[in-house]
Design a protein that fits this description.
The protein has 7 helices and 5 strands. It is an alpha+beta fold and 180 residues long. The protein has 2 domains: 12-88, Beta-grasp domain (Ubiquitin-like (UB roll), Roll), CATH 3.10.20.30; 97-178, [2Fe-2S]-binding domain (DNA polymerase, domain 1), CATH 1.10.150. Helix 3 (97-104) crosses helix 6 (151-166). It is elongated, with a radius of gyration of 18 Å.
Length: 180
Amino acid sequence: MTHTSEELAAMIVSVSMTVNGNATTLDVDPRCSLADTLRDSLGLTGTHLGCEHGVCGACTVLVGGEPARSCLMLTAQADGCEIVTIEGLSDGDTRSPIQEAMYQAMSFQCAFCSPGFIMSTVALLAENPNPTEREIREELSGNLCRCTGYQSIVAGVETAVEILSSQNILSSQNKERSGQ
């Protein structure tokens, strides 16, 4: 079935969102996933596509501060949302404290899964600044890695807790959230 240009134009939706602190408005196909929009339209290729079924977690981004599988979310669903990708964590060439912790702990081998694990860690530590090993493993259980035995990733999260605690970052973020 072919469509007229008017029909094709009617199939496009305008989406406004803030990505990594930058407001943007895009015209997208309503069937386009957020992952594809981030990668193809915005050039944010740190969001990886592994399974495209929401199982592996490599495509995890933060939507309104909550982890979301961008391969399962339509871009149109992100209209009006604040999106943070792995690129939004670092300051130019300087790794964020969580990225630095993962690096110090040698958490990843091939690192294909690292954006999803790191974004899930950001969400975890925003909610719980001092998680137990069990809580870390539970939170990260939705992310898959084919290279490691996960212990080095858990160690990276524990290192992140130490770094952030020493920099007093987590406690000040939690005070802001609770209004103290």
